[in-house]
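$ run holo --ligand "adenosine-5'-[phenylalaninyl-phosphate]" --emit tokens
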Amino acid sequence: MAGATTHRLLRMSDRDALARVAAIVDEARASLATAEDEAALEAWRTRVLGRSGALTRVLRGIGSLDAEDRRAVGQAANAAKETLEGALEARRMALEHAALEHHATAPLDVTLPGRPRRPGHLHPVTRTLRDILDIFGRMGFAAIEGPEVELDDYNFGRLRIPEHHPARDMWDTFWIDEEVDGRTPLLLRTHTSPMQIRYLDRHAPPVRIVVPGRCYRYEATDATHEWMMQQVEVLAVDEGVSLADLKGTLQEFARQMFGPERRVLLRNSYFPFVEPGVELAVDCFNCPGDDPRCPVCRGSGWLEIMGAGMVHPEIVSASGYDAERYTGFAAGMGVERIAMLKYGVEDIRTFYANDLRFLRQF
Ligand code: FA5
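-- output --
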């Protein structure tokens, strides 16, 4: 008899638990129908299905029932949970539909202020690049492009920088471990100068081209150095091209780019693929020109924007032309450095940090 009583009591608690589940479902359905927005839906979910929600509490309590009852109540509670989750989703979709319909049928209020649309605009480096190409375009230079993944031979070898040449230290290089058509070594071009070779190999003088493109250098960044930057290569090869032509072209470029009042410095430099070599610098906009803490010029008063020079005769003849007859000049300029000078930007890294507050100023 004692056994039967226990059994009856357990059955009672089983029935209680099932009734409680049913009551929870009824109450939850009724209150869900009155939830009108996402916040109310979320509050409902926490109250019913959340970690200490009503249904979760029932599921937690089934441990105290005997095995058979546990199964029955567990199944009922799990089924209820699924039903209520489905009901929540359905309610959410119904609300979304209602909102859409309301939007579609709401009368048009023509007195509302319009939604402002911010017009897009070009990145300052892109604008600078276009300015550079325009200036050279007006001087008769055609723009062409070349590969960013380059062969060692074009980036260095044919530019008179053989392996182990100390000048390789001027260009810290990202090397690539793959082969293309069995040709190695490959690298990310460190400058646009390889296009001098590629172009001269295929086009006889007169040549007058500019080559814009991204270049990569494995180096520490600072206010005037990025690991990726854009250059524009300039190449002119013809009969009788002289250093005076180079100087005149660069001066005219600087005048058009920066205005006549900006001071420009042309000084000696060295690159294995030109003879003689020069570099062009523009006066610092960030300090009076003598502040050693200035990140732009470090107290020198100048920011270097390009290397240049007369194309080395060996390069002209290696492409198959008579170097006595044909001479040329070449230059390679940094587009970001020119943009820094043009817009007064004191740190090159801000160009590619993608901070819209910075970019919207241009
Ligand atoms: C060269 O890259 C040569 N190819 C230029 C050249 C071409 C010389 C043709 C002679 C004839 P250089 O490493 O100095 O040279 O770079 C040229 C310009 O690119 C620099 O003046 C600078 O404006 C820009 N530049 C170079 N490295 C960086 C860098 N890490 N970050 C930003 N700009 C750079």
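-- notes --
The longest helix spans residues 67-105.
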